[in-house]
Structure formats: structure tokens, C-alpha cells
């Protein structure tokens, strides 16, 4: 199946498959530039493929499948560095004619075909309609929901040619906790974080790291030099620590996934200097479980937190080197390597996956992964803050996971007099709210916060409410990315965008 991933597309773009070969046409008002991949490239092969278009409004780059199959040669020496890569079979570049950089008008975006009822002529197009499947449509980092278009015709949610592979005897092929990726006549399963097994039926245990801990893994086979994919669940209150370290045999090149000053960060050196990418805004040191994901392709690093998207995701591609030969005998979880400076992780981790491999935190070898050494780990992720910290009566201790808080009994509020705190009786102790939560403003004043469906001073009046289904629609589940699977050799995709 071919997939079609589009990003950073601007102005007027026409995308076609001509006899199976991707073609891009761009016009800024002063002539059309045509970029076509070599004629021996045929993506009408019933496989998913990805297309990227990157433009600065003058120079345009048209790339197939991220050039993941291109051969890279890197030569490194004392004070020198050289890399060569042949992109002739997967990428074409061009420059739009004359000096026009923008088209000063707004038009509709059309995907998978053109609406011929719109009064517009398309002389540049040989083919005006598409047969196949499309997903992951991204423009300037914005993901478009293909399940909610302004207008559509002859399109339906999902991909009928592959969806049937994800259902076995009317039961999901990957179980209820697995994401099924359908292929032509086959499928693969990716379990949601925290679960594993053939049908994602096994819950992955949690492990505590005591702050002087690590797990040293050895892999039976090497990792790819140009791609690294890491996913793990973490829970911590420590502001800075190391999650995972990957390093070359010479110890000069590395990938180090860290929590740095509360933020998710990747530090790396692929042979041409030290760089880092940080995900701002969202902190990991708040004691809650977070899903952490690193996706590296060549020197492009993408960090995602809790599913990514919006401000929970960031990408960066600093440096020129694209490869790192990771030593499969030195994969360190929970600490840096060499460990001259202790950056040990303190908190809990669960369900580490490295390039699709499940990395066990217990001592059982699995998926070609074994443990060389383990230190400072224990099963579970409990907290005993209230056992180690006592609150003076009448305060009671509340465990907030490895920190505690002394609170007044229900129906009381804290009164502060200088450095002295005391609990004061309030009317909330009489439980005046029939439903909802009582919040005391003073010993004699309170407010009832009513739940949905009730109102009134004491939440005593029921309301008739209509509940909509808050789950994802079937179309939303499949509007995750834009790719196309071509059934025919000729397709069309047109974009009219004005910034």
C-alpha cells in the first residue's frame, strides 16, 4: 500500500501519480514548476508510502518515504567529516520561476480528486480523481481530520482494502488493547502502552528505580544506524535524570534520552558535535504517569509526550551526520554511560520498547534481549509517604505519591495564624450539598459545586440532559495520518492553500 504524508505545503500545489510515479506541480502565479520522481519509481504497489513536500516559497523539495532506502557514506577523521548520500531515486528539488513567491488568493483545499462543479479549470492535471486510501494529511504541522471535511463525495472512513485484515471472526485481531496496522492481506499489532502479548492481553508490570539504579541490556542483533524508536512510561518527581542511554563502541557518539530540569530532552552526537532537542511547556516531574516517545530518522529527532500533537510534540534536525552505530552490548536504562556523573533515574518505569522490541525490566530474556546487570530496581510503584511523615492531630496525611500533604478532616478548613495552622469547623461538615462537592469560603459560608445534571444552592434540582457519545467516531480513528494507497497507476491530489 502506498501512503501519502504531506507536510509544509504552501501556495498552489498539484500532486499526481502518473503511471505510478509521484509528480508535484507548483505555481506561484509566474509559471509552473514540475517535479517528478524517476520513471522507475512506481508506488502503485498496494503498499503504504509517504510523501513530503517542503518549501520556503521559492525552493521546493519533494521526497518519497523519507529516502529511507538511500545509501549513506560517512567518513570521519581527525578534524574532518564528510558524508555523501544518493537521493536521486527518492527526492527531487526545484525552484519556482521568476520572483513571485506567493499567490495572493484563498482557495479550497481538495484532496483525492477535484470537485468539477466548482468553476475552476485544471489544465495542469492529467488525472482528476484517485482510487485508493489516504491518511496522515499534515500541512505546516497541522493535522487535518479527514473524517470531518466540509464536502466529500465517494469517500468513506478507513481503508476497505486493509481493514478486513484487522478483524478475525468478528473480533479485533489485536484484541481490545492493541492497535492494528492493516496491510494487503496481513496485519501487525502494536499494543497500547502498558500492555504486551500476542493480542495485547498481558499487563506490563511497573518497576521502581531508587535513584542509584540502572538496567544494563545486551541485544542479540544490532540496531539500525539511521532509525531509532523508543517508547516508555515514566513516573517521577526528580527534576533531572537519565531515562535511556545508547552509545557507540568508541563512546564518542551517543543518544541520551533525559528529563532535564523537568522537561523531556534528547542529547545526541552522531559524529559531528553535541546537540539537543527539548520539548518545552509540559513537565514530567509532577508525579504522574507519562508516555514518552523518541522517533529518530537520520538526524531528525522527534519527541512526543502523552501521545504527541500540538505542544506535546517537537522536532529538530541539527547537525549533518545521519548515522550512529550503536553498541548492542551497552544499552543502559535509568542512567548515563559511562556513569562518572550519577544521573540515575528515580521514580517508576514501565513498558520500555526499543525499535519495536519489548525490553524486560525483570530478569527474563525476551525478543533477543538479555540483562547484563541490574541495580536498585524493585517490583511495583508504591508510595509510603504517610508512613514516613506523620501529621499532628487533627490533621490527616494524604499520600500524593512520594510526597505528602497534611489536610484538615472533612468539613473543616485550615486557618493560618502566623506560622501556626489549625483546623476550623465549617458548615460543610453538615453535608448540606445533596449532590456535588461542598467548598467552604468561611466557617459559616459555603458553595455547592454541582455535578452535571443538577443545579440549585444545594444541587437539589435535577435537569433533563442529553448525553452524546464521547468516544471517538469510526472516522476519527482512521483520520490519523495522510498517506495514499494507490490501486491504480494514476491519481490526483490538489492543494489550494494561502498563508
Radius of gyration: 28 Å
Beta-strand fraction estimate: 35-45%
Structural class: mainly beta
Judging by the overall fold, what is the CATH architecture of the largest domain? Sandwich
First and last CA, distance:
32 Å
> Could you say what the CATH topology of the largest domain is called?
Jelly Rolls
Total helices: the number is: 3
- The unreliable regions are 1-12, 466-483, 487-499
Q: What's the overall geometry?
A: globular
The biggest sheet amounts to:
13 strands, antiparallel
| Helix content range | under 10%
Number of domains: 5
Count all strands and give the number. Answer: 40
The CATH C-level class name of the largest domain: Mainly Beta
Report the average pLDDT across residues.
Answer: 81
Keywords: Disulfide bond, EGF-like domain, Membrane, Transmembrane, Transmembrane helix
GO molecular function, one term: calcium ion binding
InterPro entries: ConA-like_dom_sf (IPR013320), EGF (IPR000742), EGF-like_Ca-bd_dom (IPR001881), Laminin_G (IPR001791), Neurexin-related_CASP (IPR050372)
Pfam families: EGF (PF00008), Laminin_G_2 (PF02210)
Task: Kindly describe this structure.
By secondary structure, this protein is mainly β. Strands 18, 19, 20, 21, 22, 23, 24, 25, 26, 27, 28, 29 and 30 form a 13-stranded antiparallel beta sheet that branches. Strands 3-2-1-40 form a 4-stranded antiparallel beta sheet, with no helix packed on it. The model is unreliable at 1-12, 466-483 and 487-499 (pLDDT under 50).
Amino acid at each position: 500500500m502506498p501512503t501519502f504524508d504531506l507536510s509544509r505545503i504552501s501556495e498552489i500545489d498539484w500532486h499526481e501519480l502518473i503511471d505510478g510515479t509521484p509528480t508535484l506541480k507548483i505555481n506561484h502565479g509566474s509559471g509552473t514548476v514540475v517535479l517528478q520522481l524517476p520513471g522507475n519509481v512506481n508506488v502503485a504497489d498496494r503498499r503504504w508510502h509517504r510523501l513530503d513536500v517542503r518549501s520556503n516559497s521559492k525552493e521546493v523539495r519533494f521526497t518519497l518515504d523519507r529516502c529511507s532506502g538511500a545509501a549513506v557514506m560517512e567518513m570521519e577523521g581527525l578534524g574532518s567529516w564528510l558524508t555523501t548520500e544518493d537521493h536521486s531515486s527518492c527526492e527531487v528539488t526545484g525552484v519556482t520561476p521568476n520572483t513571485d513567491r506567493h499567490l495572493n488568493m484563498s482557495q479550497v483545499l481538495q484532496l483525492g480528486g477535484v470537485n468539477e462543479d466548482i468553476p475552476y479549470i485544471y489544465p495542469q492535471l492529467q488525472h482528476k480523481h484517485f482510487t485508493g486510501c489516504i491518511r496522515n494529511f499534515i500541512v505546516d504541522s497541522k493535522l487535518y481530520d479527514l473524517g470531518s471535511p466540509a464536502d466529500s463525495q465517494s469517500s468513506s472512513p478507513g481503508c476497505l482494502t486493509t481493514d478486513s485484515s484487522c478483524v478475525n471472526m468478528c473480533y479485533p485481531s489485536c484484541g481490545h488493547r492493541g492497535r492494528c496496522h492493516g496491510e494487503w492481506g496481513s496485519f501487525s499489532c502494536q499494543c497500547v502502552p502498558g500492555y504486551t502479548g500476542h493480542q495485547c492481553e498481558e499487563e506490563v508490570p511497573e518497576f521502581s528505580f531508587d535513584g542509584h539504579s540502572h538496567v544494563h541490556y545486551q541485544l542479540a542483533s544490532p540496531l539500525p544506524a539511521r532509525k531509532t524508536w523508543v517508547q516508555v512510561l515514566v513516573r517521577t518527581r526528580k527534576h533531572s535524570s537519565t531515562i535511556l542511554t545508547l552509545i557507540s563502541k568508541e563512546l564518542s557518539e551517543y543518544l541520551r534520552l533525559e528529563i532535564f530540569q523537568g522537561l523531556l530532552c534528547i542529547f545526541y552526537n552522531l559524529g559531528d558535535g553535541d546537540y539537543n532537542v527539548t520539548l518545552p511547556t509540559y513537565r514530567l516531574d509532577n508525579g504522574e504517569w507519562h508516555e514518552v516517545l523518541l522517533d529518530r530518522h537520520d538526524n531528525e529527532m522527534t519527541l512526543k509526550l502523552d501521545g504527541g500533537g500540538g505542544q506535546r510534540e517537537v522536532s529538530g534536525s541539527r547537525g549533518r551526520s545521519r548515522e550512529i552505530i550503536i553498541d548492542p552490548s551497552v544499552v543502559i536504562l535509568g542512567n548515563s554511560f559511562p556513569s562518572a556523573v550519577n544521573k540515575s533515574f528515580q521514580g517508576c518505569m514501565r513498558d520500555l520498547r526499543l525499535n519495536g522490541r519489548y525490553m524486560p525490566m525483570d530478569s527474563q530474556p525476551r525478543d533477543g534481549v538479555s540483562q547484563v546487570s541490574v541495580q536498585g530496581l524493585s517490583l511495583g510503584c508504591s508510595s509510603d509517604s504517610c508512613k514516613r511523615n506523620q501529621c499532628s492531630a487533627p490533621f490527616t496525611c494524604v499520600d500524593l505519591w512520594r510526597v505528602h500533604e497534611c489536610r484538615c478532616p472533612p468539613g473543616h478548613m485550615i486557618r493560618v495564624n502566623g506560622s501556626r495552622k489549625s483546623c476550623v469547623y465549617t458548615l460543610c461538615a453538615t453535608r448540606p450539598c445533596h449532590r456535588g462537592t461542598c467548598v467552604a469560603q468561611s466557617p459559616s459560608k459555603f458553595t455547592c459545586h454541582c455535578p452535571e445534571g443538577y443545579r440549585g444552592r444545594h444541587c437539589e434540582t435535577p435537569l433533563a440532559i442529553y448525553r452524546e457519545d464521547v468516544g471517538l467516531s469510526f472516522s476519527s480513528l482512521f483520520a490519523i495520518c495522510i498517506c495514499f494507497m494507490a490501486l491504480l497507476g494514476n491519481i490526483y491530489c490538489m492543494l489550494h492553500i494561502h498563508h
